[in-house]
Amino acid sequence: MISKKMVGLVQGSSVIRAMFEEGKALAEKYGAENVYDFSLGNPNVPAPKAVAEAMIDILTKEDPLYVHGYMSNAGFPEVRKAVAESLNQRFATDFSSDNVVMTVGAASGLNVIFKTLLDPGDEVITFAPYFGEYRNYVANYDGRLIEVSPNTVDFQPKLSELSEKITEKTKAVLINSPNNPTGVVYSEETLKKMADILEAKQKEFSSSIYLVTDEPYRELVYGDVEVPFVTKYYRNTIVGYSFSKSLSLPGERIGYLVIPSKIDDYEDIFAAAGVATRILGYVNAPSLQQLTIARCLSESTDLSYYERNRNELYNGLTGSGFTCQRPDGAFYLFMKTPIEDDVEFCNDAKKYNILIVPGSTFGCAGYTRIAYCVAYETIVNALPKFRQLAEDYGL
Ligand code: PLP
């Protein structure tokens, strides 16, 4: 018998993953070229060549006992130093290796920080629409995820509601920009106002409220859009990062947390995060991947590939009459469903072998997420099907 808690988690298990499996089954039945699978955020641009070159170099030239051995739970000190220096150079910060914990992707970074911070019943506030796995990451430590309702005008966070929802139990506010599922980048103005609210509430409740910023898409922005670096706006900020999307390495499981020295209880939190990696069973981030990314911190993915997809998809869908949020970053497009029931709409789309994810999965019914990290041809071939779907709804 599995545990009662796990029964609930399995039942609520990711709709997106289920669709991914469905996509594979449809591809076998109809042929991959006739299935338009926009369900999963699995990068379609190969990792930069430098990644494989670094791995080969490390594996052939470095001491295997060093490459494959255990190290400090927080990661190799020299890798953490390289990460800190790269951030300092790009964002004019002053981090050192003592501010960086290497993690097993963004998912483990968030689990490590919530394990570190949350007592049962503590509240974590997030803004809809949000990555659905946040529910599990907070529930893992018996915390409560509190949702702020979506601002469907421009999908910037609804700050008036944030103020109302902060209580003495609020331990953290969790944000994600560039955002999955909307592709929206939170503006500097938003972050400044959010910081003011959090400062005021910390005073009101004599508490520490940590702003946890989940940033696996930080470099994935188009045109001249800039992603503000959040530690500059609010002192109690903790950053979670991942190389899953920026270097197309989702299966390798590598990322990091930045825990700035100026946050409240820095020393305890940094030490506890190192213990959390171990007792959660990750022990440390994979050693070869740590050494690899340290050599690839200046590498980037081919943004022009995703940008072309974004343009084709956005223009095609709006041209067919759909209402879409134009994404500035990440590789997702958030589209209003022509009927209120987004689950029904996504089921209808399957008639055309189109797989898209209901907005309700992200806490935002009446919308659907379309992941455009796919082959350009998939978008070109899917657009006539989307047009038929639009016509079915009289658009
Ligand atoms: N956070 C967000 C917003 C994501 O979209 C994802 C993955 O899609 C993750 C976290 C998990 O990323 P990782 O593969 O680095 O664990």
Instruction: Give the SSE string.
Output: HHEHHHEHEHEHEHEEEHHHEEHEEEH
The total tally of domains equals 2
Estimate the helix proportion, in percent: 40-55%
**CATH fold-level topology of the largest domain:** Aspartate Aminotransferase, domain 2
CATH class of the largest domain: Alpha Beta
Number of helices: 14
Class from helix and strand fractions: alpha/beta
Rg, alpha carbons: 21 Å
Side by side, the strands of the main sheet go: 2-8-7-6-5-3-4
Round the mean pLDDT to the nearest integer and report it.
96
CATH superfamily annotation of the largest domain = Type I PLP-dependent aspartate aminotransferase-like (Major domain)
Architecture (CATH level 2) name of the largest domain = 3-Layer(aba) Sandwich
- Taking the alpha carbons of the first and last residues, their distance comes to 50 Å
Total E-strand runs: 13
Are any ligands bound, and if so which? pyridoxal-5'-phosphate
